[in-house]
Amino acid sequence: MNQVEALQAALAGEHAALYGVGVAGGKLNGARFQEATDTFARHRDNRDHLSALLVAAGETPVAAEAAYDLPQAVTNAATATALVLYIERRIAPVYGDLVEAAEQPAVRAWAIETLLDTASSQLTWGGAPVAFPGATA
User: Which of 43, 46, 71, 98 has its Cα between 20 and 30 A from that of 110?
Assistant: First the structure.
């Protein structure tokens, strides 16, 4: 995978993450709703940054799909929280791939920072710490 392919994959992941976190946020309130709002904002910022990197490279950023399949119905706060954790776990390897494929130090540094943010977010949403977030076996 080259850098452009990894950027496009990360962007596609961010589109899906925005959709899923938006769905989850509708079932949350109080502090959890604020955490979902913050998570949504982080993914939106990531999406915008990835799009800008692709445009700067002369590429057309991949478009978001109209809707995404969710792994389960989101009917209450528990299923909403589980969905956000699922999203954060799923996007971490995408950023691990971008770290590996990055050809420019600034892109690699940003991908590492984003991977760490995603790992931290997993803890916020009930996940356990892992030694190498984003690593796939």
Answer: 71
